[in-house]
């Protein structure tokens, strides 16, 4: 399942970003940069010194319906304009059929909405995560006069669709009707999946000068099934020593593996006053921590061990044998997320067969891969 999330300085268009400030650039004066196939930027002034066509919802629906877009893209785009029409109708005290769009009725704004809808379909997005929208303060000048922020259409969309606003304490309009409508119409969830992989990330900016800059980051992620995630979290034990011999460290690793360590190794590091030393790292289950820590304390000179809980994603695996021209080799088979299966020869089995047959290690190992 593909998910899309992203943020704009302190506003959001369909995504959540931890402590990023998002700024919406979809507006009466909208300028924004979209990645994932819809990068565009333009700057419409609220006083409209240039002419925009005033189209009603039926006009826009006809343009979309008569296009060669897929039905899925058409449906998404029409949903956005439906959200906008309802918000504008409430703001003007009229019906959806009587609403005539100003800025969002222009060709470039129609293209904006259609581009967003097309990208979601092209990327195969199933869910769009919407986090709080960052909004500014003050007033803006529009075709309807001076309006408070958020403007009525934005306030109506937020109210109707339960969107959450986050104050930026910055002057200016950061959530606009088009941006709010995109978030309301495209958004399906308010939280990311518990486990996911990041597939791609795009960053874009608009022309309007903000300090700090207004930036959009959109991230495509793949949610993981519970079976793909190791349920029992691992723990990492970590410490540094600068007065242990290599022989002592090798002895420690053997003991750690024998006592249940999943992984254990040591790395060269530079410590205080430029002294060379080693960092010992161990991966283990929670129940093994007391025994493994005791080994480290007993057989090294450390006086303290750090520990961290870890989670990992594992592939489905199985063990079997593979027949080669030189004999049978033990292999480990793993299944990749795309369903592809790979087999890896076990070292001990390759070494034993090479010794028995009087052959080179690499000769036997290549035979396991059909070479």
Tell me what the structure shows.
- The protein is an alpha+beta fold and 371 residues long.
- Helices cover 30% and strands 29% of the residues.
- The protein has a four-stranded mixed beta sheet, covered by helices on one side.
- A hairpin with a 2-residue loop joins strand 15 and strand 16 (327-335).
- Helix 2 (71-92) crosses helix 4 (152-161) and helix 6 (246-258) packs antiparallel against helix 7 (289-299).
- It starts with a strand and ends with a helix.
- Residues 6-52 have low confidence and may be disordered.
Spatial ordering of strands, largest sheet:
4-1-10-9
Helix content: 25-40%
Quaternary structure of the protein: single chain
Instruction: Write the H/E string, N to C.
Output: EEHHEHEEEEHEHEEEHEEHEEEEHH
Strand content: 25-35%
| Biggest β-sheet description | 4 strands, mixed
Total helices: the number is 9
* Spatial shape: elongated
- The number of strands is 17
Structural class: alpha+beta
Q: How large, in whole angstroms, is the Cα Rg? A: 30 Å
Mean pLDDT: 78
N→C terminal distance: 37 Å
Short descriptors:
17 strands, 4-stranded antiparallel beta sheet, 4-stranded mixed beta sheet, alpha+beta, 371 residues, elongated
Briefly say what this structure is:
With 371 residues, the chain is α+β, with helices and mostly antiparallel strands. It has helices at residues 57-65, 71-92, 107-122, 152-161, 177-186, 246-258, 289-299, 347-357, 361-368, and strands at 2-8, 55-56, 100-101, 125-128, 133-137, 139-142, 145-148, 165-171, 196-205, 215-223, 234-241, 263-270, 276-284, 306-310, 316-324, 327-335, 341-345.
């Amino acid at each position: 399942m593909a998910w899309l999330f992203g943020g704009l300085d302190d506003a959001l268009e369909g995504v959540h970003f931890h402590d990023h400030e998002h700024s919406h650039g979809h507006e009466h004066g909208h300028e924004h940069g979209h990645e994932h196939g819809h990068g565009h930027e333009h700057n419409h002034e609220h006083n409209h010194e240039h002419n925009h066509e005033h189209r009603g919802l039926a006009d826009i629906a006809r343009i979309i319906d008569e296009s060669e877009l897929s039905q899925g893209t058409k449906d998404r785009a029409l949903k956005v304009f439906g959200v906008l029409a309802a918000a504008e109708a409430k703001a003007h005290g009229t019906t959806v059929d009587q609403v005539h769009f100003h800025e969002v009725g222009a060709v470039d704004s129609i293209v904006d909405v259609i581009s967003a809808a097309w990208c979601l379909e092209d990327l195969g997005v199933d869910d769009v995560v919407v986090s709080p929208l960052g909004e500014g303060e003050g007033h803006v000048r529009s075709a309807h006069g001076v309006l408070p922020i958020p403007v009525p259409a934005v306030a109506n969309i937020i109210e109707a669709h339960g969107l959450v606003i986050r104050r930026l304490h910055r002057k200016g309009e950061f959530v606009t009707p088009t941006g709010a409508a995109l978030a309301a119409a495209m958004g399906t969830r308010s939280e990311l999946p518990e486990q996911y992989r990041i597939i791609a990330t795009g960053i874009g900016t608009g022309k309007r000068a903000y300090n700090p800059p207004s930036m959009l980051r959109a991230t495509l992620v793949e949610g993981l099934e519970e079976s793909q995630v190791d349920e029992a979290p691992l723990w990492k034990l970590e410490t540094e020593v600068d007065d242990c011999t290599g022989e002592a460290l090798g002895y420690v690793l053997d003991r750690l593996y024998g006592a249940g360590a999943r992984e254990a190794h040591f790395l060269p590091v530079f410590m205080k006053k430029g002294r060379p030393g080693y960092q010992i790292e161990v991966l283990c289950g929670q129940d093994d921590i007391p025994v493994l820590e005791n080994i480290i304390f007993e057989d090294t000179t450390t006086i303290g061990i750090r520990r961290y809980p870890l989670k990992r994603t594992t592939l489905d695996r199985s063990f079997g044998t593979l027949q080669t021209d030189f004999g049978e080799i033990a292999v480990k088979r793993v299944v990749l997320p795309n369903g592809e299966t790979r087999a890896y020869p076990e070292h001990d089995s390759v070494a034993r067969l090479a010794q028995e047959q009087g052959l080179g290690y690499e000769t036997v190992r290549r035979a396991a891969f059909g070479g």
